[in-house]
Structure formats: C-alpha cells, structure tokens
Amino acid sequence: MWPFKVKVMWRLLQCGLTSHPPASALTASFSRVVLGIETSCDDTGAAVVDETGVILGESLHSQKEIHLRNGGIIPTVAQQLHRDNIERVVQEALERSGVPPTQLSAVATTVKPGLALSLGIGLEFSRRFVRQHNKPFIPIHHMEAHALTIRMLQAVAFPFLVLLVSGGHSLLAVARDVDDFLLLGHTLDEAPGDTLDKVARRLSLIKHPQCSTLSGGQAIELLAKEGDRRRFAFTTPMGQIYDCCFSFAGLRSQITMAIKKKEEEEGIQPGTLLNCVNDIAAATQHTVASHLAKRTHRAILFCKAHKLLPSSNPTLVLSGGVASNQYIRKALTIITETTQMQLLCPPPKFCTDNGVMIAWNGVERLREGKGILSSSVDVFYEPKAPLGVDITAEAPLSWGRLLTLQMSRRQSLTLSTMTENVW
Ligand code: KG4
Ligand code: ZN
Asked: Whole-prediction pTM value?
C-alpha cells in the first residue's frame, strides 16, 4: 500500500498539477482529511477525502440485490447487513487511503434523514470510532450531501438551484451556503425512485433476463429504450397546482391500473412479464421526467423573478439516485437550455448513495467551521428531517399567476409542446 503522502502526490500529478503543484494544494491535502460514513438506507459506504476533493480511498457495500430478492427494503434486514459490513467497509476505505486514523481531521456521518435502523448503525459505529481516536464528529444531512457533491467535482459557487431525486426524496431548493438552503418544493407523497422501484416490482422486472440485478429505476431506463411511450398516455401529476411540489402516488395508481388492464387483455396472472413491458417502462419514465421538468421549470422562473440566483451563469444541479437516468437528464437539459441556465450532474456513481459525498460534506463543513462537534457530544439520528427553510407554502397561487405570465411572455415554446415534440 502507498503511504498517504505519496498517494496525494500521485493524485495531484494525475490531475495535471505536474512538476510544481501549488504549495497551497499540497498543504491543504496534507493538513485536512475527512472520513465519511453513509448508512442511511441500503448502502454501507465509507470514504476518505481530502480538502481539495481528492478521494484517497473508498469502499461501498450495496444491499440492492438482497432487497430486490425480498421485494423491497425490510428495515431489520438492512440494519443487519449494515451491522455485518460497516467495520470492513470503513477499514477498507482507510486502508486504501493509506491514512491512519490518527491523521484524520474529522469523521462525518449521515445522521438524517433515512431509515432509523440503518442510521443507527452508522451513528453507533461513528460514535465509538471518534471516541476511540479522539476525533471531531460532523453529523451530516443526507440531502445536503447529495446537493454539495458537485462542488467536489467542479467549481460551482453558491447560490445554485438543486433538484434532488432519489428513492426517499424529491426536492427543489436554492443552495445558498453549505448549511443554508431555501426549500422551494418537495414530494407530497412518495419519491420518484420509490415509484420506479414499485412499478418495476409490479411489472416483475426481476424476472426479466436483462433486469434481474438492476434497481427499479435502472431497469425502467433500460427497457424504456426499446419502448414506445405513446402507447400509454399517463397524465402528468398536479397540472392544476401552480407550485414546485411533486406527487407520484397518483401516477403510480394510473400505471398499476394500466398494468392490470393489460394483464386481463393478455390473459396473464400478476407476476408474469407483460409483452408491452417496454412501452409501459417508456411511458412511466417519460411521465416522471415530464413532472420533474415542469416543476423545475417553475422553480427556475420563481428564482429568476425573485433574483435568488446570480444573473451570470445561473446553475441547476441535478443529483440523487434518479439523476443517473439519462432521459431525465435530457428532459432537464431542455428546461435549462430554454431558461439560459447551465445544468450540472455528478456522474451516476456519485448520484447514488456513497461514502464520498458524506466525506466531502464533512470537508465543506470543516472548511467553514460549521457543525463540528467534539467526540464526547451525544448525537441522535433523525429519520425525518426537512432540508433548509421551507417556503413551499408561500402563496402558491401568486406564484402561479406570476409564472403563468412569465411563461407566456418569455417562452415561445410552451412546456406542453416541448414535452410532446422535442423529447
Ligand atoms: O440516492 P439513492 O442511491 O438512495 C436514496 O437516497 O434513496 O437512490 C436510489 C434510487 C432507487 O430508487 C433507484 O431505483 C433509483 O435511485 N435509480 C434510478 C436509476 N438508478 C438508480 N432511477 C432512474 N434511473 C436510473 N438509472
Ligand atoms: Zn441518497
């Protein structure tokens, strides 16, 4: 194994900092290094990241295949799997980094929101670890970590708009600082990843030869490539509600009814693969993308009207597991091009849960001196935890009027024509 300093040198050289890396970069790399630990749902992740965003070591254990076989996440099963793997995963990340625990500047761990039993394992392990090694502890909000990941990969200044879409969440927020978010919209019922996972289960995609090891969202994306979305006309949710919130439960009912009807037509039992499975996947993906795009469009117009984003190079960051989906990225690209925004998405590996994003969030907080606790402070996990200041309920009707005006004046292309003709 390479010693830590050699490894940092090598990574700096790889990054193009050839023979003369800036002294500041070297000093920073040597001085502050954070261990990040993630166990909020079904991935046990750990990583060691330095202050310049160099990933020194990482390890990830995914429980996906076990939960797929069980037909969904059973919290006690997830908890046991985290318990079985956390020690090894953290050890692996540390060993790969070459950083001994004594050289860590802090330990950052997801403590909210997520599955209580899963969060508990990461927190319990971290509390023992920081006490043993006498290290500062940085509790992390999982969605804050998804929002900030992009800043590890490229220079993105605050404020920027984020759309975070995962198995547990969907939200639109203005990121104003590391710990300062303005929440514009969130899901009123289930999250898009949850919807895709449930639709995939109802379609029995685990029995599909190409999908048996894929998450619901991945399976739907794959099959949708061969499907004709026009064969099923699902209604985009919340068409008459002029705010930036989301809803996916009603869409799932529409899809379930369509599946049931097709099963009857094809004379097959639930649990058997339908012939039209690709078309249902395509229509599902399209409607989810369309809903996300329309709400995001409204949020962009709201931000512009209220000057919440910089006039030069305003940015939308798309992240979370569902943001791995290329069709959804394309849909959001149409929106950002129309509104003169730049769209940034981390690569899929950093959109789904991992320890790197937690370590990076720790780095960001460490740099600003925000939320750093001593090893002896008691911290508790919070299964439910909103992100930032919630302004979703602020006069949605006036938003609506304002935005309708703006859309008709400024846009030659309406959203409905875009969704019909451009995609
Ligand atoms: O962020 P994440 O790893 O975990 C949570 O915090 O929830 O997201 C997992 C979710 C799952 O629901 C999965 O089906 C979805 O992300 N997902 C996708 C894709 N890859 C993962 N959804 C759509 N398209 C994908 N390619
Ligand atoms: Zn996540």
From this structure: 0.89
